[in-house]
Automatic annotation (TrEMBL):
SUPFAM superfamilies: FAD/NAD(P)-binding domain, Succinate dehydrogenase/fumarate reductase flavoprotein, catalytic domain. The keyword Ribosomal protein does not apply. This is Tricarballylate dehydrogenase. Pfam families: FAD_binding_2. The keyword Oxidoreductase applies.
Length: 471
């Protein structure tokens, strides 16, 4: 139904900007509390859901094994993992609150129709910590949309928020562009759950410079940060570094936008990574993959031309989840280098130097640090070091794949957006959830599944608090 027809039912108790996990959790929570809710989603219906469409799992604390998880994952262990990957660059009180709230999320989100499958094995090593959605992120989204619509939440697609009417600390209305018309939508409360600005290359350049032209955007092209910019310009408190983001190594042959999970590569720990000058530049075996996969996008972003190559040999080809594209293959290292358009002499020398430095001889186990390492190299490999000596040889070209950005708005434990007034005064009726406030938890770094935790937990909180505001 067109927005101008739906708007006749207004003013609304709650207007939600966005259509992904965080937005839906907010809408469902508020609707279950008896509030009228309108979701405006900038994307067409087919592309609804933002980056949630490409997710697979969610990380939640739990005290015991379940049907889909192999053991307990305590709040303290979750916090330790978060502090490790962020280097302590997090609002610890807010993060503790999120982790505590995550314990009930596994049951709550299943009550909204979402189903889980047993956790995947392979390089992911997440069987104890992360719950995997049955059917993936799109299936999870479809379940949440079905529940929201059954409860009476109204949803309008191709509906972009282009202006906000904010008086001091109070939201009054949003101007929403739909079917070529700008329509004023009034509401008693507003939840911003419309993603980061990763699809806005010009904004990325403000932090990264011209390097950003070579970034690939893993998710939706609709996350351009327009609401984020409007909120900050209207006096909301900003948080986060414009260069910090969830950035992984993805296949360099992936499309510019929306390549999703199938372009990500999990083979780094099985070989070596070198830049276009055939130089290794970081420890491929620093820690288990779920705690380090999200550093590789930033590492590659700082290499010449923002490109690198993951090189491995025949025994490892079946040890990881393949990408959408097949690896480059050759019977010799020299021929592999030529196919990659790299200097064959330098390429062979780097692999030979690595092979000569491998020590350990322990049983290979990619699920735990195994002590197989190198010695004497300028850039060592701490674990999972194996000689690359068995043909055929393989390589994947990789570029930075940006999932979402961390610069956004600051919130409190009630998901209220805080004002930039020197005191951090909470806004009266504005809330945020998901990527737009992820920088409160993720000052830097990432661990698998935390993005969905942030969205679900603070989405539910935002919806509940917005419902109380309208009571």
């Amino acid at each position: 139904m067109p927005l101008n027809q739906i708007e006749r039912n207004g003013p609304w108790d709650l207007l939600v900007a966005g259509g992904g996990n965080a937005a839906l959790c907010a809408a469902i929570a508020a609707r279950r509390a008896g509030r009228s809710v309108l979701i405006v989603e900038a994307a067409p219906k087919f592309y609804r859901g933002g980056n949630t469409r490409h997710t697979r799992n969610m990380r939640c604390a739990h005290d015991h094994a379940t049907d889909t998880l192999t053991g307990p994952y305590t709040e303290e262990e979750f916090l330790d993992d978060l502090l490790r990957v962020t280097g302590g660059n997090t609002d610890e009180a807010l993060s503790r609150h999120m982790i505590a709230e995550s314990k009930s999320m596994l049951d709550w989100i299943q009550e909204q129709g979402v189903r889980f499958q047993p956790s995947l094995g392979g390089t992911l090593s997440l069987g104890r910590t992360n719950s995997f959605f049955l059917g993936g992120g799109r299936s999870m989204l479809n379940s949440l949309y079905a529940t929201a619509e059954r409860l009476g939440v109204e949803v309008v697609y191709d509906a972009e928020v282009v202006a906000l009417d904010i008086e001091g600390r109070t939201f009054r209305a949003a101007t929403v562009r739909h079917d070529g018309a700008d329509i004023r939508v009034e509401a008693a409360a507003f939840v911003a759950a419309c993603g980061g600005f990763e699809a806005n290359i010009e904004w990325l350049k403000e932090g990264w410079g011209e390097k950003a032209d070579n970034f690939l955007i893993r998710g939706t092209p609709y996350n351009r940060g327009t609401v984020t910019r409007m909120l900050i310009d209207a006096g909301m408190q900003q948080i986060g570094d414009p260069t910090q983001c969830h950035a992984v190594a993805i296949d360099a042959r992936a499309p510019k936008f929306d390549g999703g999970i199938i372009t990500r590569l999990d083979c780094v720990v099985f070989g070596v990574v070198m830049n276009r000058d055939c130089e290794r530049f970081y420890d491929e075996g620093e820690d288990i993959w779920p705690k380090r996969y999200a550093i590789w996008g930033r590492l590659i972003a700082n290499q010449p031309g923002q490109i690198a190559y993951v090189v491995f040999d025949a025994p490892n080809i079946k040890r990881f989840m393949p990408s959408l594209f097949p690896p480059v293959e050759a019977p010799t290292l020299r021929e592999l280098a030529e196919k990659l358009e790299l200097d064959p002499r330098k390429f062979e020398a780097t692999v030979t130097e690595f092979n000569d430095a491998v020590v350990g001889g322990f049983p290979f186990d990619h699920t735990e640090p195994d002590g197989n390492r190198t010695e004497g190299l300028p850039v060592g490999k701490s674990n999972w070091a194996q000689k690359i000596e068995t043909p055929p040889y393989y390589a994947y070209p990789v570029r930075p794949g940006i999932t979402f950005t961390y610069l956004g708005v600051k919130i409190d434990q009630q998901a209220r957006i805080l004002m930039n007034d020197g005191n951090g005064t909470p806004s009266d009726n504005m809330f945020a959830a998901g990527e737009i406030m992820a920088g409160n938890v993720l000052g830097q770094g990432y661990a698998a599944g935390i993005g969905m935790t942030i969205g679900a937990v603070f989405g539910r909180i935002a919806g509940q608090e917005a419902a109380r505001h309208g009571a």
